[in-house]
Design a protein that fits this description.
With about 180 residues, this protein is mainly alpha-helical. The longest helix is centred in the last third of the chain and has 27 residues, at about 155-180. It has helices at about 1-15, 20-25, 30-45, 55-65, 70-75, 75-100, 110-115, 120-125, 155-180; strands spanning about 105, 130, 145, 150-155. InterPro entries: DUF5317.
């Protein structure tokens, strides 16, 4: 979800907010540690080492928990509620897609074949909830169809990532507001 954090930083910068304050606070560093772990897992997928995928659910839970310090320290409670609603909606959308497809999430790689992230035989090797999508896939628009080359996302995944964007952007906005009110 590093690209979501980067997007929040870029939009905050475009809106005229200073982003340097975010990195002066210890609360961003647990999040960045989990981002590094995520990059490590992604690098292993590129190398066709799928042994870390079984830990993805636990890592995702810990990753979202790493935002608690940021939420509490900068009182981002409303943002957290809105972001949690986005996670809820995204999870429901993903569960609908999975239920419609016999308990599996169909994936439609395009760009990821070119980058080497996805390989046709990988879905057999990994043997998790993801399967290669085909013409019999139901509710294709809810499955993993948004291919960014190093990850393939669903609409539900986009909603889940909105949590990250909302928390990071609103924390920067809050920090700027506090900084300017102290001048």
């Amino acid at each position: 979800m590093l690209e979501t954090i980067l997007l929040a930083l870029v939009i905050a910068k475009i809106k005229g907010y200073k982003i340097k304050s975010l990195f002066k606070s210890w609360t961003i560093y647990p999040i960045l540690v989990f981002e590094l772990i995520y990059l490590f897992v992604q690098a292993n997928i590129f190398k066709e080492n799928y042994s870390f995928i079984k830990y993805a659910n636990v890592l995702e839970t810990l990753y979202f928990c790493s935002y608690l310090a940021l939420i509490i320290k900068y009182e981002q409670y409303i943002s957290a509620i809105i972001g949690s609603a986005c996670i809820f909606i995204g999870t429901i959308l993903n569960k609908i897609a999975i239920s419609a497809n016999n308990g599996k999430m169909p994936v439609f790689p395009t760009l990821s074949y070119s980058t080497g992230y996805a390989k046709p035989d990988a879905f057999m090797k990994v043997n998790d909830i993801h399967i290669l999508g085909n013409s019999s896939t139901k509710l294709k628009f809810l499955t993993d169809v948004i291919d960014v080359g190093y990850s393939i996302l669903s609409i539900g995944d986009i909603f889940i990532r909105l949590f990250v964007f909302i928390i990071i952007f609103n924390t920067i906005k809050h920090m700027n507001k506090v900084e300017y009110s102290n001048i």
